[in-house]
Design goal:
CATH class of the largest domain: Alpha Beta
Strand order of the largest sheet: 3-2-4-1-5-6-7-8
Low-confidence stretches: 298-304, 362-368, 437-450
Shape: flat
Order of helices and strands: HHHHHEHEHEHEHEHEHEEHHHHHHHHHH
CATH architecture of the largest domain: 3-Layer(aba) Sandwich
CATH superfamily of the largest domain: P-loop containing nucleotide triphosphate hydrolases
Distance between the termini: 31 Å
CATH topology of the largest domain: Rossmann fold
Number of helices: 21
Radius of gyration: 26 Å
Helix content: 55-70%
Number of strands: 8
Structural class: alpha/beta
Mean pLDDT: 78
Amino acid sequence: MFESLSGRLADVFEKLKRRGSLNESDVSAAMRDVRVALLEADVALPVVRDFIDRVKKQSVGQEVLRSVTPGQMVVKIVHDELVSMLGAETEGLDLLAPAPVGVMLVGLQGSGKTTTTAKIAARLQSRDNKKVMMASLDTQRPAAQEQLKVLGEQAGVATLPVVAGQQPVDIARRAQDAARLGGFDVIMLDTAGRLQIDEALMAEAVAVREAVNPYEILLVADAMTGQDAVNVAEGFNERLPLSGIVLTRVDGDARGGAALSMRAVTGCPIKLIGIGEKLDALEDFHPERIAGRILGMGDVVSLVEKAQETIDEEEAEALAKKIQKGEFDLGDMAKQLGQMRKMGGLSGMMELLPGVGKAKQQMAQANIDESALLHQEAIISSMTRAERLKPKLIHASRKRRIASGSGTSIQEVNKLLKQYQTMRKMMKRMNKMGEKGLMRHGLKGLMPGM
């Protein structure tokens, strides 16, 4: 997300930072480029106009133009205004109401409402220890209710039994009664969608809202539809008291204009973003972190949070001790590859690191295949325990067997073994250098000849 916008803005600010001093014409020229970059990213024109006016007004002040690093000051102003545009504060789901708390999801057909319903339910149940029930009110789309039931089984979340012929308002009332009797904390209501906003869709959503009065009404919008997503948000916001927005398919949207426009256009906070198809691919929307990603500052906090969710502390401590003793084997490497994959792969992790924009471009140009992690895990899985512990045992005939068993080639097996040896050498150097030596020599000390 934001890849094209981030690249364009990086070029603009790189020129500003090179200048020792700035004048009004420099700032005006930079703002023209920023304006074009935002419009190309599908940000709504009124939002762009207001944003540029606010940034320009602050950037031409004497305290900026006369500061020691005026270029950096302009970047900071842009960052702060981006945060303001995106909502300033992180706003999660509000469940501070008598149980069962109703959460109603609305949106167009194909925006990902049903999957998002299951994602939120799974998240509330596993992370917040809430007892959740889901109910499908979608009587328009064939098999929609069955789809939610299947997702509920996958996530381990209860779903309301389907009664043939029942209408959405009646289903919502039955769901509320069943949740109350069953002692559920939250009831998730997945409403029907249409291919476009129409009176029947709105009337149905309004009727459900009036019948059960849900505490949260979330609009689910597809980020990849760009400006259309903003128009949809405006349409729903006119008829329903939306409490928040969930953006789906954020991982497939390189522009990000919908995210930048929605808060400003509707006044509703973006609460969650969908970053993949899996049930755990859902994140809180943090305006400051997102602004940092857009400006190439990274998002180290999110990276640490991902690591905490995926890395087992006891395993990590055991691995650290093995590395100190020089006992790192291929089994340990397989665990590291699995953790990296869970954290979004190499590109997903790099997206959260500061100052790696150019490195990401080089990766894209090199066509690095993220599925290589899966191939490497398959190769290690095809080895015997003795081979994982002592890779020196792996000679020609064993390599052929491992390649055949993992569905890869002997070249890929060789590449993995070479990568393993490189990692071992680096770990040995780290132990020899110690913490102070590592800080003094950095990567060059670890990788001589860089």
